[in-house]
């Protein structure tokens, strides 16, 4: 099972430029979370801060009792082995085959024999659907295949926390849909805690258990997906609706006068429909996170906004009326 990640009061700047401040949230163990935000809001910086590659000025990131900001470097280094990181571009070595790229972390960080490395690498290659391409160079395959190779490499050390930095960038809608399903399938298989940084609305609508959003150097919200998907916050409504009207401008935040003029001219916007979350592909086990999330969310439901409460109750009422899935037989290897 994945590991809970607790973020407390995290603040990061580069020189005089504040990136975000006082970010506080918890990534629940084994669940899939998404962090949204317009371009330039520091989403990638946030990922690098979680794993200890960047040092925030204030705050803590607690993982198994280790603070990834303030603990001794050797403790941070050991805890970093719990992570798998999927970069935007796959970050593959151009002169290495896909097999050698995916094997790299095992050869660098373990003393496994080559026979064992080959077994692990080929298993991960099969999981991401790249069997037959392991001998190719990154330059010989499509961008979507490079993404999947990067994901396979992130999985070889059996991470308990997986961070995906804009996995959809450069992909067409069809490949993005395949990738979304792959991420859900992975969670069903390995029960890892997952955080996906994206500005893709299709991934945001269908993949996560939890959602957050960064804007104006602040965490706008973080919590069960229904909270953000039903939010009346102007920046959230603008982002999820893909509209020009709202606080987000082309190159900077809009001033108060512009926002007031837009509000005066605004027309009614149809309420957003919450689409069902993706299920694991047929033949895979159910996600163990689903039951844990339900218990967690229902324990806090009275503290949530009214729109989110209604959406959560409707979702769980619908799932209760759905036909039960057959339970795998004992020893089936699910």
TrEMBL record:
Residues 5-241 form the ABC transporter domain. InterPro entries: AAA+_ATPase, ABC_transporter-like_ATP-bd, ABC_transporter-like_CS, P-loop_NTPase. It comes from the Bacteria. GO terms for molecular function: ATP binding; ATP hydrolysis activity. The keyword Methyltransferase does not apply. It holds the Pfam family ABC_tran. Keywords: ATP-binding, Nucleotide-binding, Transport. Coiled coil: none annotated. This is Phospholipid/cholesterol/gamma-HCH transport system ATP-binding protein. It comes from Streptomyces calvus. The lineage of its organism: Bacteria, Bacillati, Actinomycetota, Actinomycetes, Kitasatosporales.
């Amino acid at each position: 099972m994945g590991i809970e990640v607790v973020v407390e009061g995290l603040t990061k700047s580069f020189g005089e430029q504040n990136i975000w401040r006082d970010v506080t949230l918890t990534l629940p163990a084994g669940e899939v979370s998404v962090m949204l935000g317009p371009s330039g809001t520091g989403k990638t910086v946030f990922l690098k801060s979680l794993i200890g590659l960047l040092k925030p000025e204030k705050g803590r990131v607690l993982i198994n009792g280790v603070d990834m900001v303030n603990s001794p470097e050797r403790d941070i280094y050991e805890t970093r082995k719990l992570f798998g990181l999927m970069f935007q571009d796959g970050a593959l070595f151009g002169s290495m085959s896909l097999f050698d790229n995916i094997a790299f972390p095992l050869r660098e960080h373990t003393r496994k024999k080559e026979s064992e490395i080959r077994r692990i690498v080929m298993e991960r290659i099969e999981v991401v659907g790249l069997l037959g391409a392991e001998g190719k160079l990154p330059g010989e395959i499509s961008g979507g295949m490079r993404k999947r190779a990067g994901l396979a490499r992130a999985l070889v050390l059996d991470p308990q926390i997986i961070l995906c930095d804009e996995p959809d960038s450069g992909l067409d809608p069809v490949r993005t849909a395949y990738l979304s399903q792959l991420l859900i399938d992975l969670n069903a298989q390995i029960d890892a805690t997952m955080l996906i940084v994206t500005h893709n609305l299709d991934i945001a609508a269908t993949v996560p258990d939890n959602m957050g959003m960064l804007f104006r150097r602040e965490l706008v919200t973080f919590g069960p997906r229904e909270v953000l998907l039903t939010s009346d916050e102007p920046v959230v409504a603008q982002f999820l609706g893909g509209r020009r009207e709202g606080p987000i401008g082309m190159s900077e935040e809009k001033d108060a006068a512009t926002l007031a003029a837009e509000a005066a001219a605004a027309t009614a916007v149809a309420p957003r429909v919450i689409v069902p979350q993706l299920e694991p592909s047929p033949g895979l086990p159910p996600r163990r996170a689903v039951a844990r999330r339900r218990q967690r969310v229902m324990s806090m439901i009275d503290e949530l906004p009214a729109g989110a409460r209604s959406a959560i109750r409707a979702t769980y009422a619908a799932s209760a009326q759905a036909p039960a899935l057959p339970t795998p037989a004992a020893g089936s290897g699910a």
